## 1
Amino acid sequence: MDSAPRCQDDAVIASPGDHAVVSRLQSMAYERMIPLNVSLELTLKCNIRCLHCYNFDRDTAGPVCGDAVSTSAPELELPEVLRVMDELRAAGCLFLSLTGGEVLTYPHLFAVLDRAREINLAVQLLSNGTMLRPGVAARLGGYRNLLGVSISLYGATAEVHDGITQVRGSWRRTLDGAERLRAQGVAVRLKLIVMRPNAHEVAAMRALADRRGFPYMLDLTITSRHDGTDGSLAMRVDPEQLDALYRGPLGDLIPSGGRPVSEAAFPCNCARGNCAISSRGEVYPCVSVPWSAGNVRKQPFIDIWRGSPVFERIRGLRIADYPSCAPCPDKGYCSRDRGAAYNASGSYTGIDPFVCSAAGLARKIGEARATTGR
Amino acid sequence: MTFKRDPGLPYQKLDEETIVVDPRSREVHLLNETAARVWELLASPRSLDELAAALGEEYDAPQSELRAGVDEVIGGFRDKGLLDPGGQPVRG
């Protein structure tokens, strides 16, 4: 492949001049199956209660729970996390994403960052931004190996954003945190999650990011939760909203004429150049696919990476193994989100009907645009 | 004077080459085989002569040529901000 497919969350560095070099490295990892990009979930604890959270239902009063495999196991202790980081580096990891829950609630975050610096890992954080107080921002600014921080934003107004996080004041704190971090020289990118309660503000959200000079990515992916509940799906945009978005403020997301699709495989970096590790040590093909390939508490990471039947299965998949996707005429417009498919169907090669209908709509609009030139 | 690479910079070997990622400058540097070997040697402080001598054990080239090559590589690293800013004084 000329350029290995990567999840959007990996792309904090995006300098045009470096694109060819990074692409070459990513392609090498994809071809040789080197876990260049790893997402490490440090904790499921969070200080806000987003309605769309894919971890678990944040309105439950029960104990912190996570993936379906080990809901009662304790989170990894710091020595375990540091050992896993050493193993990841030895296996070829360069880009480490630290996530949660809210990663800044993790009490040993700076010990983790110190280790990442010692072993020359490039780190990025995925955060809600609300805990970026001046001292924290200043301290993060001291890490030369910090690629950047991706901060999630759910509205152009406090009313909408705080309604989603269910924490008053979170919008203001998120934006203040983003500004503070940037002032410390850390790259900040906003992640604008588009959902039912904020669909009417999408244009305003983009304008806000532009006005404040923050690069951003857009994401419409809302899946059912890893604890098996699906109340989060109520936050997805409905079909009418999606139609209006694709014909309006998100029209630029639709590739005119569609993307080329290889008939050999659905390119995906899961289990090839990418994987994820949960806060309880489960190794997944990707952060959004809670299909356990093994647990680092029971086996060295490299043994799981090289020998897991789950990873072997994924690496051997060809387009014909996706029974609904293979014949689908909308392939060139589809996000092919494996996390959405897995969470909706229970199968890595299954489908999420929402993703399918979004692809159909995108093709309809994209082909009309290609025909009319508008 | 001795030189050392910035210990905080992420990097990854890519066959005989090495990629160094500098989040602060938003740049990614691709080091050729020689520069990659120098980068490896700079994990600890070394003078230009020590670097040239180390390369001399691996490459069949005149010492003067190796010294000039090392000089150029170090100059490039310095210009790109890849060296440890806390350089060490000349040993007596």
Note: The interface with chain B takes residues 13, 15, 17-18, 21-22, 24-25, 28, 36, 92, 94, 117-118, 120-122, 143-148, 185, 187 of chain A (CB under 8 Å).
## 2
Amino acid sequence: MFAAYSDAAAAGSGDKADVILTFSTDGGATWPAANQRRINDDATLNDQFAPALAIEPGGTKLFVGWYDRRRDPLNNNIDTFGAIGAIDNTAIPPTFTPGVNFRISSESFPPVVDVDDAVPADFMGDHDTAQADESFFYYSWGDNRPSSAAQRTCVLPAYPTSAPRPARIGWCGRGGGNGNGVVERNECNQLFIGLVNAGTAPSTGLSAVLSSLTPAVSIDQPNSTYRNLNPGRSGTNMTPFAFTTSPGFVCGTTIELLLTVTTSEAGTFALIIKLPTGSLNSNAFDDVPTSTTITDNATTEFPLTVAGVSGAIGKLRVALHILHDSVDQLAISLVSPDGTTIDLSSNNDSSGIGFGLDCAHRAIFDDNAGVSVALGTIPTIGPMRPEQALAAFNGKSGAEVNGVWKLRITDNALEQRAPWNAGTHHLLLGTGGDLTPTPNDPAGVAIMDDTTMDVPLDVSGLTEAIGKVTVTITKLLHHRDQDLDISLIGPDGTSVLLTSDNGGTGPNYVGTTFDDSAVNFITAGTAPFSGKFRPEQPLAAFVGKSASAVNGTWKLRIRDEFGQQHRRHSVQLVAGHLYA
Amino acid sequence: MTVGPDHVACVFYYSDFGGNHIRMRKSSEAFGVIHEVSGLLNNTAANGELGLYGSFRSRLSPKPSSAPSLPV
């Protein structure tokens, strides 16, 4: 008997949710701790939650599907992932071995709530479920992908229970393969994939076609037949499959291949094959430039000497720390010794004040990052994808690598502008505006128990669409923050929940700025809340709204959910910033 | 809940008695015996709320399933 659930990782780890599976071999009488398995195999601290599970009728394979945020560095967008584990009921006692994780959803989607009036406003994923028959697993989930008109699509993919056996890697003797049994860049490999007949009847007429789901991997020999398989028996492809990795293939990444299998009895179905690959030798070069000044309206180059790299580059990442009060004035590029130049960032993020926090917490440019530097707010630390791919350096070696690299920074503005957070409400791109603060009344505006109140914030004179919104509560006095829900509501009625029931029995919000770019979530903060926090719902909901939808009265809605405390609470000053 | 091959119905549930737990009761015992499934969970929030980003409810609801070939 099996049970799956989500639980936080060990205290202090920062991982709020993993998917755990546990099992009993005595009819549920006991559930030993030794039988607990963490199903998600990611190395992130991101969330995995809302598991669904099913066991095929033969009782030897178990599927778990779940919501997974591992692909989003900001831990917001969701995918569905799955794993097929093996139950060995011939062992005494029976055992369970988790399977490798695979992505199921083809598109990431954000959390979406409060869409259906028929269900509570905060439900999402409560009814995700899985089932199985002799041949397939079936998994359905609530899907909020932006490309879906319905916003709530139920998807039913099928994953055959006849999962492949581990693949064996051979050497096909062409294209630089070295026969070491490890897949590396720029080599050809043979591949043998075993199939198991997990059904109850013989399987005949078996054939398979292999295709690649991984860039930089091509298939040289895609076709093979298999011998007939009786129930419970396994067989390997009669003709070796063969594939080639390109010079730009990055070792250490997992290769995903699609094996399309046809049998006389079950028709055609697909299996995903995952292959581990070799690892990169790591070379890190660090330097503190002799000059640390970025000159206005000029180009400055910072040299970095690289030496002793013997192989070709398989992957390159750049970490840097730049302080500048208007990073949108900067064009940053990396130049290799052979003159290859890659644009890391050009004039991005009007609200940014730098890259990285300090030299110990630098911003990282990485081709595999989930966020592009060109698509919005620059992450404080990263990682982020550069404007041009650093893979352009892959394959370079010798004098192309060993020599003087340059970080080239061009400041294309004559005068520095004041930082946006200097308290003077400077607007960075033309026609932004401020939400007019409430009167700085020493006594504040009273917040009554068990009551909802709106603090008006007037905006006028904007002529361009919103690029970003932040909200600052200078002083909100309340003896128990968990009583409070606070939302920002635009003139067109768009509502974004900033905080709900956070802070426990602690008091007050003092100097609290809600900003989608903040590192810390408000849900993870402690009262009194002070500093920058990511709100419960993204303020990006206001981005793109036109001036006509922005000019008017905004509201900071404060709801106190509990009554009869007879204490005086107040909010003294609220300010917001709209960036066009 | 799940029903085993022996026709025993097993109900799994979240419990916050003495800390957060996943527990189970069986029809063959008239649902009178509590079986500890998870032990004490790392999550300590009310209702087993995981507190994930996005304003949706994310509680510790267990999902069970029975294997037909395991001892029951």
Note: The first helix of chain A runs from residue 547 to 550.
